[in-house]
Amino acid sequence: MENVVTDIVNWLKKQVEETGVDGLLVGVSGGIDSAVVANLIQRACPDNSLGVIMPLNSDPEGMEHARKVIDNCGIKGMTIDLTETHDVMFSQIKKNLSNEFNDEKGQLADANLRARLRMSTLYTIATNYNYLVVGTDNAAEWYTGYFTKYGDGGVDILPLVDFTKGEVRELAKILGVPQEVIHKKPSADLWKGQTDEAEMGTTYNKIDAYLKGEAIPEEDKAIIERMHRNSAHKRDPHPQFRRS
Fold first, then answer.
1. Hey, which of 48, 134, 136, 177 would disulfide with 172, CB 3.0 to 4.6 Å?
2. At what angle do helices 204-211 and 218-230 cross, to 10 degrees?
3. Active site includes 141?
4. Residue 81 — φ and ψ, nearest 5°?
């Protein structure tokens, strides 16, 4: 895994060189994936990397972890609170939808808006600095589509997409990510008390095992395969009409 870290860092340097940008940035959530990416981009671009914390009615502990990640890896940090922006935007949308607002889908719509506001924030900052936006999706999230289309899935490059959640954890240990971040329950910080595994209905360990071709319970296999089918549009987001 130490060699893998070197390979990823060299790949990141190559992306910077080939695209002609000046550096790299990532949204730091306090979770393990963004912590790993923050460490990797700091190694690739020590003087031109940025970790952006974007609280949005967020769990204070998660924000504390995010700040600790930034302080620990030595990357330049920035905090932009999106709570007010989100509240104004979502309330205006609900107001204009009036009695047509679908309460059953309201939580998901709200969660996706949060992810897309964060993406827009990252790209605005990236344009200012001429940086690439670096994504944090791992192999399990990419395969199951457990990311928001044009939200946390809206990035320029994906250095972790070939690594299982377990492998990301191993990378985190090598990179010196704080222990409390490595061992916390994964959460996309989309609503209070939200955790990835509770929302998906299966675990990252089972998804990792499935991706490695190992046997898992049929119930979990069915969930994973259904998520993969239903999220195909996220991995190939632009169906195009072609004239015959």
1. 177
2. 80
3. yes
4. -80, 120
Among the listed residues 17, 22, 33, 152, the single catalytic one is: 33
* DSSP helix/strand/coil, 53: strand
Burial bucket for residue 179 (CB in 10 Å: 0-12, 13-18, 19+): exposed
The 10s digit of each residue's pLDDT in 73-125 is 999 999 999 999 999 999 999 999 988 999 999 999 999 999 999 999 999 99
**Distance, CA of 185 to CA of 200 (rounded, Å):** 13
How far apart are the C-alpha atoms of 115 and 117, rounded to whole Å?
6
Q: Within the chain, what is the greatest distance between any pair of CA atoms?
A: 57
Rounded to an integer, what distance in angstroms lies between the CA atom of residue 40 and that of residue 88? Answer: 35
What residues pair up with 50 in beta bridges, in sequence order? 25, 76
The active-site residue, picked from 141, 152, 167, 220, is 141
33 a catalytic residue: yes
Single-letter amino acid, residue 84: E
- The per-residue pLDDT for range 186-225, each reduced to its tens digit, is 776 666 777 788 889 999 999 999 999 999 999 999 999 9
Of 80, 149, 159, give the one whose Cα is nearest residue 115: 149
Nearest-CA neighbor of 111 among 90, 136, 139, 141? 90
